[in-house]
């Protein structure tokens, strides 16, 4: 891994390698699979399952999950997966955030989000929770 390979760099000073270790970082935690059931837009009788993998450094908080936030680059954000009634609005929101991120180099984008119209099944409780697309995840 990138972190382990820093030890192979003999000519780098130790303080530089340590700065790189701190920058790369390593999080310990757990990964959970949230199942998303998508009803085919063109044929309501068919359905597909989509897995959203979520990593958390605090697995003890899994029971308190109220929603999922996905980035604007997540594969769930396409006409194939989004419901008809929210698809165009969500894709417009994603494009707006992309444009803001290109031209605004500040923290204005943090905290913007929109419900996708899609829900995931909580991996432990089985409760249906909303999936949001967010400008910062």
Automatic annotation (TrEMBL):
<dbReference type="InterPro" id="IPR002302">
    <property type="entry name" value="Leu-tRNA-ligase"/>
</dbReference>
<feature type="domain" description="Leucyl-tRNA synthetase editing">
    <location>
        <begin position="21"/>
        <end position="137"/>
    </location>
</feature>
<keyword id="KW-0648">Protein biosynthesis</keyword>
<comment type="similarity">
    <text>Belongs to the class-I aminoacyl-tRNA synthetase family.</text>
</comment>
<keyword id="KW-0030">Aminoacyl-tRNA synthetase</keyword>
<keyword id="KW-0436">Ligase</keyword>
<dbReference type="Pfam" id="PF13603">
    <property type="entry name" value="tRNA-synt_1_2"/>
</dbReference>
<dbReference type="InterPro" id="IPR025709">
    <property type="entry name" value="Leu_tRNA-synth_edit"/>
</dbReference>
<keyword id="KW-0547">Nucleotide-binding</keyword>
<keyword id="KW-0067">ATP-binding</keyword>
<protein>
    <recommendedName>
        <fullName>leucine--tRNA ligase</fullName>
        <ecNumber>6.1.1.4</ecNumber>
    </recommendedName>
</protein>
<dbReference type="InterPro" id="IPR009008">
    <property type="entry name" value="Val/Leu/Ile-tRNA-synth_edit"/>
</dbReference>
């Amino acid at each position: 891994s990138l972190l382990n390979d820093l030890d192979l760099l003999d000519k780098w000073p130790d303080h530089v390698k340590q700065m790189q270790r701190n920058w790369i970082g390593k999080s310990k935690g757990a990964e959970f699979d949230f199942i998303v059931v998508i009803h085919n837009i063109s044929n309501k009788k068919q359905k597909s399952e989509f897995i959203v993998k979520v990593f958390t450094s605090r697995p003890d908080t899994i029971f308190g999950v109220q929603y999922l936030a996905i980035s604007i680059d997540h594969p769930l954000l396409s006409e194939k997966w989004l419901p008809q009634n929210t698809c165009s609005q969500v894709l417009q929101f994603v494009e707006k955030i992309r444009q803001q991120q290109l031209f605004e180099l500040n923290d204005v984008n943090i905290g913007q989000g929109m419900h996708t119209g899609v829900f995931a099944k909580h991996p432990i409780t089985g409760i249906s929770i909303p999936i949001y697309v967010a400008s910062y995840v």
